[in-house]
Design goal:
heterodimer, A: about 120 residues, mainly beta, four-stranded antiparallel sheet, B: mainly beta, five-stranded mixed sheet
Chain lengths: ~120, ~110
């Protein structure tokens, strides 16, 4: 396995601009998660997919955030009209879930800075 | 979601064992206990998980209290590369498995 990859690794944008991040999970992993992490805190759950279906969205995820996983493989997270409060590390994780518990494998993250 | 409580920070000397505690008094019968760690500038990394019995793998051991209200991650010989933030989380069994709440974890400092 090559691991979970995320692109870009860093993104600097101006307030009000739209940004899109990509996550490529481990091959054949059926679940994909998005988290947000700010400095000094643990990851906060945003949303997750099983195959192409988005099963849950956190209430932290405002209408400006949208995520897709169109073919059940890679996923994109888009933030519209970015605000300074969106500055954070955005983490993606994938897992192979067949029932029971779920062990996640994380990517290196995309660090977003909104000026 | 059931919550966990961990000390903010711990220190250890290199090559000595480290015991990282976690309290989870509201754990339910189907919650698994997972540990992840996050090295500086990296995403979290899976360490170990268990349900009721103690578990060992190449990275660490997990000791689970008989009443399951607490657990301890054991690093048998700490190295400088073990310096990280360690997260203890509860992961429910079933469809919601993986939808877990991370706290702020324990920052482990390893002294040479």
């Amino acid at each position: 396995d090559t691991g979970v990859s995320q692109n870009p690794r860093h993104k600097i944008t101006k307030r009000g601009q739209n940004v899109t991040f990509r996550c490529d999970p481990i091959s054949e992993h059926n679940r994909l998660y998005w988290y947000r992490q700010t400095l000094g805190q643990g990851p906060e759950f945003l949303t997750y997919f099983q195959n192409e279906a988005q099963l849950e969205k956190s209430r932290l995820l405002s209408d400006r955030f949208s995520a897709e996983r169109p073919k059940g493989s890679f996923s994109t997270l888009e933030i519209q009209r970015t605000e300074q409060g969106d500055s954070a590390m955005y983490l993606c994780a994938s897992s192979l879930y067949w029932g029971g518990t779920d062990t996640q494998y994380f990517g290196p993250g995309t660090r977003l800075t909104v000026l | 979601d059931a919550k966990t409580t961990q000390p903010n920070s711990m220190e250890s000397n290199e090559e000595e064992p480290v015991h990282l505690p976690c309290n989870h008094s509201t754990i339910s019968g189907t919650d698994y206990i997972h540990w992840y760690r996050q090295l500086p500038s990296q995403g979290p990394e899976y360490v170990i998980h268990g349900l009721t019995s103690n578990v060992n793998n190449r990275m660490a051991s997990l000791a689970i209290a008989e009443d399951r209200k607490s657990s301890t991650l054991i690093l048998h010989r700490a190295t400088l590369r073990d310096a990280a933030v360690y997260y203890c989380i509860l992961s429910p069994e079933g469809t919601n498995a993986g939808k877990s709440t991370f706290g702020d974890g324990t920052t482990l400092t390893v002294k040479p």
